[in-house]
Amino acid sequence: MKKIIVLAVESSCDETSVAIIKNGKEVLSNIVSSQIDIHKRFGGVVPEVASRHHVENITFVLDEAIKEANIQIKELTCIAVTKGPGLIGSLLIGINAAKAFAYANHLPIIGVHHIAGHIYANHLVSDLEFPLLALVVSGGHTELLYMNDHFQFETIGQTRDDAVGEAYDKVARVCHLSYPGGPEIDKRAKNGKDVYQLPRVMLDQDNYDFSFSGLKSSVINLVHNTKQRNETIHIENLARSFQESVVDILVGKTLKAIKEYPIKQLLLAGGVAANSGLRQRLKEEMEAYPGIKLIIPPLKFCTDNAAMIGVAGTFAYLKGQRDDLSLNGKASIDI
Fold it and tell me: Pairing between strand 26-34 and 15-22?
């Protein structure tokens, strides 16, 4: 294909990120300004605070991405920006910055679904081959998606309550671990044992849906009852028990799906894709399916970043998608 260079913007939550991607494969730059240290004291993301910091950071991050990529603006093919889902205030900062840049430089603009970005981050590892199945696991999403071709998403399973990343954060808070909870629990789990009897919710049901609210409640009740008895919770063991339950559910449902759907690839996507226990279990289980290629992005492309939006934007551009300056953000939007 002809040279396609996409400048991408991601600001759906608390990372301000701008990347420049060449031909959907080569990352010329990927600048990420994280607000984790800012929100850590609140135990979670404060939307108003996040929006204000996006306003402060977006211009500097944009300039740095262009500088690091070492390209001229006239070389750009289009602008891609996350249109949703996400925190509406945060989304609007990135969208308005992208629209202003596109207008000033006479470039087409493309709105990209945030989850599509997470899925297409895998293209940076290996070309996508269809049909495929994507397990999307993040702070706001837990879904199994089937794809027959580029941008053809069929949701075959999803969480009925909490997303897995949300459950991690809430359990971490109960255990007095710092935000974000996922990395903290993953780290503690490595030194623990699966000794607490926690449920594998919906694992035995004949569908591909997930549920983590009951598991989260079980942990909260366990901690509360233990304190009532003046006993001590072993945090490492609790972290390991919780993580084993989560991984059993996620991998169990995924394996059930790949037995029903003929696929060439299984993709792992989203912030929780950085979880070491989940990554290791999937690698082990997929050895029994040599005809299916497991693709897992490197850690830097699991959490929110603009490179993934640039890759998805490249394929959206090739499919002829174009938006105009009426492009708006949406806090909730179907893929």
Answer: antiparallel
Q: How far apart are CA 253 and CA 7, in angstroms?
A: 36
Helix and strand numbers (H, E) in the chain are 10, 10
| 308 φψ region: left (φ > 0), alpha (ψ -120 to 50), beta (else) | alpha
| Sign of the alpha-carbon dihedral angle for 316, 322, 327, 332 | negative
pLDDT tens digits, one per residue of 136-191: 999 889 999 999 999 999 999 999 999 999 999 999 999 999 888 899 999 999 99
All residues at 6 or more sequence positions from 183 whose CB lies less than 8 Å from its CB, including other chains: 274
Residue 214 CA to residue 253 CA, distance in Å, equals 17
First to last CA, the chain: 26
8 φ, ψ (degrees, to nearest 5): -120, 145
pLDDT digit string, tens, across residues 17-63: 999 999 999 999 999 998 878 888 777 888 899 999 999 999 999 99
Q: Cβ atoms within 10 A of the Cβ of 127, count?
A: 10
Q: Is the bond preceding 131 in cis, omega lying within 30 degrees of 0? A: yes
> DSSP label at 91?
H
Beta bridge partners of 132: 147, 265
> What pairing do the DSSP bridges indicate for beta strands 142-147 and 78-84?
unpaired
Domains belonging to the chain, first-starting first, are 5-120+302-318 (3.30.420.40), 127-296 (3.30.420.40)
**Residue 31 to residue 19: CA distance in whole angstroms:** 6
Phi, psi of 159 (to 5 degrees): -70, 145
- Report the candidate in 45, 136, 123, 121 with the shortest Cα–Cα distance to residue 335: 136
Q: Is the pLDDT of residue 203 over 70?
A: yes
Backbone φ/ψ region at 202: left (φ over 0), alpha (ψ -120 to 50), beta: left
Instruction: Name residues whose C-beta falls within 8 Å of residue 11's C-beta, 6 or more positions apart in sequence.
Output: 17, 54, 58, 82, 86, 90, 91, 93, 94, 95, 97
